[in-house]
Amino acid sequence: IFLKSFVSPFSPEGLLLYNYHVIDTSKIEGRTSYRLNFVGKNKEDLCLKGYADIDSATWAIKFISYRPNQKANFNYVYNLLEEQKFQLIDNHWLMVKDNLILEGNLLKNPQKIAVRIVKTTLRNSINTNITIPDSIARYKDDIVDKNAYRKNTSYIDSLRFDTLTSAERLVYHHFDTIRHLPAYKGLKFIVTLLTTANIRAGPLDFGELYRVISIN
């Protein structure tokens, strides 16, 4: 995770670094599951803490929720939570949902300006044991529809099989609106200038500026 290696609670080395507790037995979607809590023995180790629902028949992970250990050194990230859900499809446990929440800032202080990232990946209509034609497997160019980026919001909403919350819709609205504000365009120009030393004008880049004038 972010170039740091965490010991998995389900690895052979996990018994040396984790404490485990079975806290509940329940039926989820008609199958008996055990809820297993895990936490790193040393709060400063690069371990995870959270819980997993384990299927009693196959010992597979049906659901897992975890975050870094309490005092693990995680650079500028002060909060991270990941949840993954798996579903039994054709005798294989496949991931159908992956939800990541991350918060952090350069000052390592939650009270200052921070960045919050939420990424949710959902999968449905999963088919297995399908033979992929060679014409697709060997296709080297981009197979994304050239008009995909021109689709309107209504069309995209019709494809999304999970509705957005009001907060998520507000993020999309702000993102689409801010790109047209003069203040944002000015800030983008300055950031591009500072990071690339180029002045961008439409399809042209002028620079690098510190090489425009030189003395022989």
Helix count?
Answer: 5
Strand order in space, largest sheet: 1-2-3-4-5-6-7
- The best one-word shape is extended
Instruction: Classify the secondary structure makeup into a structural class.
Output: alpha+beta
- The average pLDDT value, as a whole number, equals 85
Strand content: 35-45%
Gyration radius over CA: 24 Å
The counted number of beta strands is 9
Query: How widely separated are the two ends?
Result: 49 Å
| Poorly predicted segments | none
Amount of helix: 10-25%
- Biggest beta-sheet profile: 7 strands, antiparallel
Order of helix and strand elements from N to C terminus: HEEEEEEEHHHHEE
Structural account:
It is a single chain. The chain is α+β, with helices and mostly antiparallel strands. It contains five helices and nine strands. The protein has helices spanning 14-17, 134-137, 153-159, 166-178, 182-196; strands at 18-28, 31-40, 48-55, 61-68, 77-89, 92-104, 115-122, 198-201, 204-207. The strands form two sheets. Strands 1-2-3-4-5-6-7 form a seven-stranded antiparallel beta sheet.
